[in-house]
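Read as amino acids, C-alpha cells; as here:

___
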Amino acid sequence: MVQAHFRNNGVDLLHEVVGITCVAQAVNGGISIDKRAMSTVAGLFAAGETAAGPHGADRLGGNMMGTCQVFGELAGREASRFVRANGLLPVDEGNIAQTERMTSLLYRRTQPSAMLDRLQRAAQENLFICRTQKKLEELQKELVQMKEDLEGAPMCDKPCVQNLSLYHLVNCAQLMALAAAERKESRGSHYREDYPDWNPDWEKQIVLCKKV
C-alpha cells in the first residue's frame, strides 16, 4: 500500500533513496514475543508494530520500517520452521466455549459503523494525549457497555464479520486502558495529568496475561 502510494506520486521505493523521519505516537505496546518472534501462543508469531519490545517509552513511527524488516524476516523464518516441525496443532478443547461465543457474535444484528464511531470517540476523549484515572475509568465503563450491547443484540441469519472485528477492537482498548491506568506516572508519549512527573520506580514494562 505504501509502495503504491509513493509510486502514484512519482517516487519509486525500489530504486530511490528515501529518507525516514521519526514521528512520536501516543500508544505503545504489542504482543510479547521471544527471541524467535513467537508469542506465548504456540505457532503465533508477531513482528513490527504488533510486537512489544523493539520500542521503549516512545514508539517512533519511522523506526518501524527497520523493525518490520528485521523482525518480519525472523518471524517468517521461524514460523516456517515451526510448521515443518509441528504440522497442524491439535484443537484446544478449552477454546470451544470461546468459539461458540464468537459464532454467536457473528450472527448479531448490529450497526458496526456506528459502534466503531462510538469506540473511536471514547478512545479519542479518554485514551489519547492527556489521560487521567477518571477518564480511563469512564472509558472502561463505556467499553464494558459496548460488549454488552454487542452480545445482547438481536440474533439474525446473516453473518456480520465486522462484529468480530469490533469485539476485538474493544478488547484491545480495554487492555490499553488497563495498562495506562496501572502506570501512575508520565513517561515518553504516555502522559497522565494526575501523575505528570516521571517516576524511576516505573522504569519497566507492563505485561498483561490472560488467566487460565
